[in-house]
Amino acid sequence: MKIREAFCQAHRDLGNFLEAELLLKSCLGLVRRDIYLNPDRGLTHYELNLLEEAIEKRKAHLPLAYITGKKEFYSLEFRVTSDTFIPRPETEFIVDAVLERLPITDHSAPEGRDLAFGGRSPITVIDLGTGCGNIAITLARHIQNSRIYAVDISKKALEVAKENAIRHRVEDRITFLEGDLFSPWENYYLEGKIDFLVSNPPYVIRREINSLMPEVANYEPRIALDGKEDGLFFYRRIIEEAHLYLKSPAPEQVRCGAGRGYLILELGIDQSSQVKEMVKKTLEFESIEIVKDYSKIERVIIAQRQ
Ligand SMILES: C[S@@+](CC[C@H](N)C(=O)[O-])C[C@H]1O[C@@H](n2cnc3c(N)ncnc32)[C@H](O)[C@@H]1O
After folding, report:
1. What is the pTM of this model?
2. What residue segments make up the domains of the chain, in order of their start?
3. Please, what CATH class does the domain formed by 73-305 belong to?
């Protein structure tokens, strides 16, 4: 079978042009251009088997990213496995929120960032529930002078995250630890030292998980989705402790350029007002902002420490 025929078959079977192209590329180990420049190149038996298996898996709703083993996030490619949540485009708003709040506009200049939070210390970030490491690694790539602490309760997800950090050459800037939210940081003395505390926590209401698309409900790790009875379990826990870790300099230090830390969380649909209320109630934050995603859904909450 030739590439052009295999492409048509994949397209017919999947009913999706882009997915057919991605599967073909992945199974043949080709880049996009090769497919279109060599449509008459024949597939080996091995390649054909791989493609047919991949098409069957996809028809059984296995997410494309788990078949190809990769997913793009913020223009970087991440390895993903069935142990990791698949990064979503809306989570890129968390990265934007951090980069936009580095006070110096040239984020790539280490000297600029040194000035950013009033001193020569690096920008410090905690990422709770790092998954394949997409948020932590993207931030490390964009903020050279950064020190990032990333935690996940899943040992297997962390293994993938560490691999991704090495692949993107930022492993020296990120400390990955296994554990429950803040608990692994007990011996790191991070209280009051963090510039950005970010998280895309599990936020699906437990009884609604089974009604999600089969790609999500049947294949993505439950532990990455399950926000318990009302979907808000992790927000309560994070918001209760977040202020202890975020920088909260005295007014005179702020006047000299020291920055107050930010809490930045992704939100599920219709969760913004309840989460905003939780943040307000702590009386530890000021200037609470909500950012909408591409579909105009209130997607990210950003609260600055008082
Ligand atoms: C929705 S996924 C987000 C993954 C990744 N940060 C992203 O944005 O694509 C939530 C992650 O939280 C992790 N997680 C769940 N419960 C946790 C807990 N108690 N402590 C730390 N991480 C947890 C899951 O393993 C999963 O990787």
Report:
1. 0.93
2. 3-60, 73-305
3. alpha beta
